[in-house]
């Protein structure tokens, strides 16, 4: 009787290991890319939500009852912390900076708040509710990655 005791050769073992490593490398590359895409999408969604909150605050102050003007105030307490007050509501963030460009619809005034600027420590704008206000550009900029931003524009008016 002849017994077959060949087993696995060294070449077969090396081919199997190299194919396994190649497949695992491809799978891990796809997995890492999907995690990065998820992180970018998550940041974009958070910026969109924050921008919507800011626009809602401006819109709420502009469309509130009465004809008394309201103010948008920006104050910097130190190099990192800032507070913006829109009407009765305040907001601040240590994760992002805001650049808010407002214009009156009649073109008589414009106003820019840039929380990344360390030269301006305080600004106040009084807004007449009777005149539509153009949010020319509201930009939210990630403090950790300045290339990661979100921009929105709109017009707010009372009918």
UniProtKB/TrEMBL annotation:
The keyword Membrane applies. This is Prepilin-type N-terminal cleavage/methylation domain-containing protein. One of its GO terms (biological process) is establishment of competence for transformation. Keywords: Competence, Membrane, Transmembrane, Transmembrane helix. It is found in: Cell surface. Its main location: other. It comes from Pseudoneobacillus rhizosphaerae. GO terms for cellular component: cell surface. The chain crosses the membrane at residues 6-31. PROSITE patterns: PROKAR_NTER_METHYL (PS00409).
């Amino acid at each position: 009787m002849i017994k077959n005791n060949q087993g696995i050769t060294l070449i077969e073992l090396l081919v199997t290991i190299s194919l396994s490593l190649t497949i695992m490398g491809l799978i891990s590359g796809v997995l890492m890319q999907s995690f990065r895409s998820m992180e970018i999408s998550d940041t974009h969604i958070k910026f969109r939500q924050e921008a919507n909150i800011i626009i809602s605050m401006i819109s709420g102050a502009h469309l509130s009852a009465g004809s008394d003007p309201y103010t948008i105030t920006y104050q910097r307490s130190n190099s990192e912390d800032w507070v913006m007050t829109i009407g009765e509501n305040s907001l601040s963030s240590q994760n992002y900076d805001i650049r808010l460009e407002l214009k009156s619809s009649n073109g008589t005034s414009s106003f820019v708040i840039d929380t990344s600027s360390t030269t301006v420590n305080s600004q106040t704008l009084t807004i007449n509710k009777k005149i539509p206000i153009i949010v020319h550009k509201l930009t939210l900029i990630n403090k950790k990655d300045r290339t990661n931003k979100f921009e929105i524009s709109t017009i707010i008016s009372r009918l």
